[in-house]
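[job 0412] stage=fold_complex status=start
inputs:
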Amino acid sequence: MAEKKHAAYICSGCGLGERLDIAALEAVAKKEGKMQVVKTHPFLCSAEGVAMIRADIDDEGVTHAALCACSRRAKTEAFNFPTTAISRGNLREGVIWVRPDTEEARETTQEMAEDYVRMACAEVKAMTQPAGNPNTGTNKTLLVVGGGMSGMTSALEASKAGYKVVLVEKTGALGGWAAKLYKRTPTREPFKAPEDNGVADLVAQIEADANIKVYLNSTIAKTAGAPGRFKVDIAMESGPTVTEDIGAIVQATGFNLYDANRLPHLGYGKTPHVVDQAGLEALAKAANGGVIKRADGKEVKSVVFVQCAGQRDPSGEHLPYCSGYCCNTSIKQAMYFKDANPDVDTVVLFTDLRTPGNGEDFYRSAQNKGVIFSKGVVSEVVPNGDACTVRFHDLILDDKDARIEADLVVLATGVVPNSGVNIDAVAAPAAEAAGSEEGAEAPAPVVEEKPISILNLTYRQGPDIPQFKWGFTDSHFICFPYETRRTAIYTAGPVRRPMDIAQAQEDATGAAMKAIQAMENAGLGKAAHPRAGDLSFPTARLEGCTQCKRCTVECPFGAIDEDEKRFPLFNESRCRRCGTCMGACPVRVISFENYSVNTVGAQIKAVNIPDEFSEKPRILILACENDAYPALDMAAMNRNEYSAFVRAIPVRCLGSVNTIWITDALNSGYDGVMLMGCKHGEEYQCHFVKGSELGRYRLSKVGDTLKNMNLETERVFDLEVAITDIDTLPRKINDYAAKIQEIGMSPFKGF
Amino acid sequence: MSNANEQMAARYKNNFLKEIEEQAEMGEWVKMCMQCGVCSGSCPTNFHPGWDHPPQEIFMMIRAGKREEVLTSNSMWMCTSCYNCYVRCPRKLPITHIMHGIAEYAYRLGLAPKMQPTLHLSQTFWNNCTKTGRVNEVKLTQSLYFKDGFMAGIKKGLEMKDVALGLVKAKRLNIFEALGGGHKCKDIKGIQAMLAKAKELEAKRKAAKAVA
Amino acid sequence: MARKEYAFYPGCSSQKGASASNYLTSVESMCKTLDIKITEIPDWNCCGASISYAESGELPRHVMNARNFALAESNLPGQDIVATCAACWLGARESKERLEHNSALMADTQEALKEAGLSIKAIPEIKHMVEVLIEDLGYDELKKPVKKPLDGMKFAGYVGCQTNRPFGIHGESFENPVYLDKLIETVGGEAVPYDQKVTCCGGALAFSEPDKAQAQIKDIIESAYDNGAEMLVTPCPLCQANTEVYQGQINKKYGTKFNMPVLYYSQLMVLAYGGTAKEAGLDGNVIRARKLEAFAAK
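[job 0412] stage=fold_complex status=done
writing structure:
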C-alpha cells in the first residue's frame, strides 16, 4: 500500500474568512493536526477549489484529506473523492452559523473552530478509505413468497423491470383471498359499483411471463445465505425439494380472517344464518349476480352487516386493531344484494365507518342505492326461528335495546397476519433460560399460535422476520414501510399491516423495487438502506474477542452468525453498517475502516480542554447522523444560536456508541456529554429500528461509571431528538450548558 | 288519525324512509346522512334547548322507521332557518329544507303538534301575505297575539306594548293597516288564481308518487 | 342616465310605515349619492319568506317568487333584480336555483303563472344590495363620496344568517364573513371583532318562541358590548328588528341594561356621505342612535 499523506483544506468562503482567523486555523492544522499539506481556498467547493484538491490527490499523493468548511451533509457531490479518506471539519453549520457575530463571542467562536479543525485532522488520520467487497453475492433472482394479489403484483413488477422471479404459493392456485371474492371494491372512477376481482387477469399475465417461475403447493423449507447469495429450499407437496439461488426476497404471505368461532355471542356457529365476510362472498359467487340465497336455499330478503366483529376491541379479548378494508367490503356486499334486488333490506351497523381510498364515493353510492347505515354497537345475535335477531345499542338514538330481524347476518371479523414464528416471543424465554443456573428448569417458551415458520431462515436470531405490533411483520412504520430487519427481505401487503387490495398492490410494487435495489447493492458490496451505497464493513480482531456474543445477539439485522468456534461470523451483505456491534463490543475489537472506536475516540481526545479556572466548560455531543445531526445543521441554517462550549461528533446510530467514548471524555476533562438519538419503543424513529433502544440500554449502565468516578449523574445526558427539533434543540443545548455551569467544572481536567 | 295519514301509512307500510323520500320536500336526501352530528352541533337551538331531536336523530329515526315519533315531534318546528347546518354539512345535505319538508308533511297529514306556535306563525304568515299579495304587519301581529284566545291576546298585547309603541313612534308600525288599509298588490285576483293552480299541481304530483 | 340600473324588490318590510321603512329611506338616499337607479318592480308581491314553509308547500312558494321574476323581466328588461331584505333575496335566489335545475318544477310554475297571465323566459340575476355595492361598484367607489368619515366610532358588524347562508356573498366564508366589517371601515368606522357575528337572532321564531329567540339575541348584544362596540350594524331587516326591539324585554328578563342602537349599513353610508339624520332614517330607530344624530348635525 502506498504511503499515507495527510492534507487539510480550509475554506474561507461563506463568511468563514470574515468570522474566523484562518491563519490560526492553518497553524492548528499544521502544528497540532500534523497535516503535511495545509491549504486555504476562498471557495473550496467551486470547480477550482475541487480541482486543487483533485490535483493534490493525483499529483502529490494525498491519501487523507480533512476538509474544514461546511457540514458533512453539504456539498457531497463536489467533495466526492472515492479513493481518498475524507473527514469534514464543520466550521459553517457547526460554528459561525450558530454563534453571534459579536466582539464578545469572537474568542469562543474561534476556539470552537480550532477544535473542529483538530477533530477533522484527528479523525482522518484514524480512517482508511473502504474499497468495498464486490464478492458478496451477485444473484439477481427475486423470490416472492405468496401468490395472492400482493405476491403476483411483486412478481410482475420485478419481471417488468427485467428480473427473474421465483414465485412460491402454498396452495394449488394463484389468487389468494382475492380469488375468493365475487367482486372487489372499485378502483376506478366513478367508484360507484363493485368491480371484477382482477385475479384472472394477473394469473394470465404471470402464466405468459417467461421471467416468472411458479411453484404451486409449495413452501419454503430453508432459507440460507445472505442478500445476493441466498440458497432457498422449496418443498413441493408432491415431489422433491428444489434449491433455488436467490438474490432478494419479497414476503407477501397475507392474512387470515379472525376466527368467527370466537364470537359465539354474535351467533356464529349457533346458526348457519350468521356468516363472516368470506362466507358471504361464497354465497354471492354461487348466486353470480342473481338473488343471493342462504345455505338452506332460502332467498335472503333482509341482511344485517355487523362491523367491527371481534376487532377494534378495547377489552383485550379480541383483536384491538382495524382490518382497514372491511367497511368498504360490507358496503360492497350490501350492494350485491341491492344490485340483484333493490327491495332487499340491507342494514350496516357500524360505530365508525372507515372508507380509505375512494371509499367515500363508494359509501355514498351505497346510500343512494338504499343501503341503510346505522350507528350502533351489536351486543348479541340470536337465532330466531328461521331468521336472526340482532340486538344493538343505537348510538344516535341512545336506544340500548334496539333490534332488527334479518334472514342473514354478516360479521366483519378483521384480519390476522400470516407472519410466521414470533421470534422474539421464542427468543426471550430462551435467553432467560441460558442465563439461569445450570440444572435449573427452563420455563416453557411462550410460542405464538402459528408456530409454522414461513421462511425458515438459518439466521441465529430465528427463522422468520421479526414482528412488531399485533403480529404484523416489522417495518419502519413512518419512513421506510418495506424495510424489515432482514436485509433484502421485504414484506408487502396485509402481512405488514392491515390494508385493502389497492393498497396491497401499491405496497407490492414498492417492495419489489426495494428488493431490486438491495440485490444490485449486494452485488457491488454496497450497503442497503439507510446507508445505501456505503462500502465500509465491520471486521473483528478475533484474537481479542472473548466470544461474549453481544454483537451477534444485538445486531438488529441478524447479520452476524457464530462460526464453529463461536466467534462472530459476519455476513457482509446482510449488514446495514449501523455499528451497533461496534458499540456493543466490550473489548472494542469491532471496527469499520472509516468508522471505529478510534476515529471517534481520536476526535474526542483532539479537543483542547481549557483548565478548571477558565470558566469554559466542554460538552461533548454524540449526535445520530440520521436525525440529530441534520437537526443541528438545520438549526444552524435558521441561525438558531447555541453554546460555544459544545463539540458535536456525528455517530451512525446511538447503538454504535461505545461506552469507552464517554468514560474517555469524562476522564480527559469534559464537563458533560450529551447523547442525541432517535425515539425508541413502539413509535420508534430509529433508522436501524433497534439501534437507539440498544444504545440507550447500554448507556443506562453508565451511571455506575460516573459514581465510581465520583461525578454527578447529570454529566451524561441522554436526549431524544427528532429531525424536526430545529428550534427546540438549540434551546435544550443551552439549557444543558447552563446546568453544567451550575454543577461546576469537572475535576478531571489537566490529568 | 286523519284520513290522509291513514292512507299514507297504508301506502308505504313499513317503509317510512321511502315515504319521506317521496312525500317530503328534499326528503330524498335523508338516506345520504352519514351521522356525523355536525348539524346538531351547529344549530342555535342546541344552545338554548328547544328540541327533542336534532336533525341527525330525526334522520336516524326516519331510517329506523319511527314514523309516529318523527311526524308528531316538536323538533322540526324549532328551525329558525339560519342555514348553519346546511352550509356545514360535509355531505351537503340541504338540512334546513329537509327539516321544513318533514314539518310540512307532518302538518299535511294532521300529525303536527296542536297549537304549535311556529306552525301557527307559518299558517298566519302565508295566509296574511297571500291575501293581498303583501304582508300586513299589524294584522299579522294581531292574529299571532290572539291565537290563544281573546284574553291571552290582550295580555300578550300588554306585554308587547312597549315594543309596539316604540315601533309606532319610529313610524315603523302603521296601526291604520289594521283597518283594512295598508299595502296590497293590484292583481290580487291573478295571484289567487295562480296560487290555487300551484296547490292543485303540487297535490297532483305528490299523489302520483304515492300510487306509483 | 345613471351608471347602474336595477329592478328593485323592496319587500314587505321596507314599505312606507312598515318595520324596515327606515332601511328604505337610507337606501334611496345612498343610491342617489352613488348614482344607482332603482326602479320598483311594478306590483311586486311577497316572497313568502322562510317561515311560510308549512302552509305554503313547495310550488306555491316558488310561484310567488316566479311572479316577481316575470314582472321584472317584462317591465324592466335586462335589469338585474336587487333586494334589500335578506329573506327576500334568499327566497328569490332559492326559487331561481330550484326552477333552473328542475324542469318539472319549472313547467308547473309556468302553468300556474299562466293563471295570472304571466310567463318566464329567463330568470334575471338576483342580487342583494350589498352585492351591488361591493361587486358591481367596489369598495374604492364606495369610498369616493365619503365626506365625513365616522372616525372613532366602534361598530359590531352583525352579519347574521340569511345574507351569509346558504348562498352568502361571493368569496366570503360562512364562519367569518368580512364584507360588513370592510363596509364599516370604508366609511371610516372601526369594526370590532366579536364572536357572535353570524349567530342567529331567532328569525321568525322571535314571534313564536320569544324566550328562545331572546336568549340568542342576548348573546349577540352582550358579545358586542363586551368587545367594545357602541352600535350594531346589519344588512337584514329582521336581524335589525329582532336585535333592536327586544332589548327592553331582555333587560326585564335578565336584568341587563342593554341600550344599543342597531343600524343598517346604508344608514352609516348616508351619514358618511354627508346626509342628514332624516335622509339616513335615524328617526326610524327605536333605540335612538344619539351619537350618530349628533354627528349628522355637525
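[job 0412] summary: Residues 83 and 129 of chain A are 6 Å apart (CA to CA).
[job 0412] exit 0
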